[in-house]
Amino acid sequence: MLVRRAVLGDAHVDAATAAITPETADFQSFITRYAWGEIWTRPGLDRRTRSFLTIASLVTGTHLHELAMHVRAALGNGLTRAEISEAILHTAIYAGVPAANSAMTVARDTFAALDAEAGAVPGAEAGASASDPGADPGADPGADPGADPGADPAADPGADPGASASSHPRTSS
Q: Is the domain defined by 46-124 classed in CATH 1.20.1290.10?
C-alpha cells in the first residue's frame, strides 16, 4: 500500500479504499498485492520508467479511464509534460493514431486540471517555460519542428517555406 500511496497519492487510495464493496474487495486486494506490492516494487526498473511503460500500455489498450490518474502519477515520478506527450506520440505509431489522439486529449485535460488546481499558467511546468523547455530560444515558434533547418525553401518555388521533404501532412481530430 505504501508504493500505491506514493505513486497515486493518499486521496486516490483513500477514495478507492472507501469505495470497496463486498463485490470489489477481492479485486482491490488483488491489485494492491500484485500491481503495487509485486510489480511496482521490483528492483529492475525505477518508478519513472514504470510510468513511461504504464502510459504506453494504457494508450495501447485504450484504457483512458486510468490514463489521467497515471499522467498525474508520472509527473510525480519525475516525467515532464513534454516526455508524457512524447510517450503518447511514440505510442501512436505502434498502438494506433485514434488511441493516441484520445490519450493526448486526456493528457491535455489532466494538465489543464492540474494548472487550475495550482492556479498556474496553463502549459507551464515548474522551472520551465510554457513552451518546450528543450527548444532553441532563437527558433521560429511557427516553424515545423520536423523541418530540416538547413533546407533552402527557395530551392522549390512551390514549396511551403515551413515544410521540408521529411514533413508529413498534419491532421486533427
A: yes
